[in-house]
């Protein structure tokens, strides 16, 4: 969230990094990418990198992936589930597959490494990463 001044006082915008960038590092509850840092979880989409309001241990729901379901051009979704691998519930997997996405769940560290490789190969990939 970014605060700025507009004609009517303070304006709150949903800030994001426009475009895709590899993750340079992760840990201590956040990520570093494109010479910036972010505390908390992230959605890495073709349209940009967005804050993801999920923490380790939170329930995975279709609503948690709603921004991703409106994204075009994603064939592969990597879900970094935190320190431990957790499976997505069947309703979430069904919703993602209905949008043509192959989904793979793994620890956040493995998801970061896999995302960076797939991004460098210019593959149609997105990632949902729980901060560790």
Automatic annotation (TrEMBL):
<dbReference type="InterPro" id="IPR007523">
    <property type="entry name" value="NDUFAF3/AAMDC"/>
</dbReference>
<protein>
    <recommendedName>
        <fullName>NADH dehydrogenase [ubiquinone] 1 alpha subcomplex assembly factor 3</fullName>
    </recommendedName>
</protein>
<dbReference type="Pfam" id="PF04430">
    <property type="entry name" value="DUF498"/>
</dbReference>
<dbReference type="InterPro" id="IPR036748">
    <property type="entry name" value="MTH938-like_sf"/>
</dbReference>
């Amino acid at each position: 969230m970014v605060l700025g001044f507009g004609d009517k006082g303070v304006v709150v915008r949903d800030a994001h990094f426009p475009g895709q960038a590899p993750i340079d590092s992760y840990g201590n509850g956040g990520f570093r990418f494109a010479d910036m840092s972010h505390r908390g979880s992230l959605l890495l989409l073709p349209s940009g990198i967005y804050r993801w309001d999920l923490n380790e241990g939170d329930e995975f729901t279709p609503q948690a992936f709603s921004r991703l379901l409106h994204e075009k051009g994603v064939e592969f979704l990597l879900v970094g589930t935190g320190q431990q691998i957790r499976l997505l519930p069947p309703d979430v997997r069904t919703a993602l597959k209905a949008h043509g996405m192959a989904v793979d769940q793994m620890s956040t560290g493995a998801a970061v490494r896999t995302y960076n490789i797939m991004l460098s190969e210019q593959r149609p990939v997105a990632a949902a990463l729980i901060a560790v």
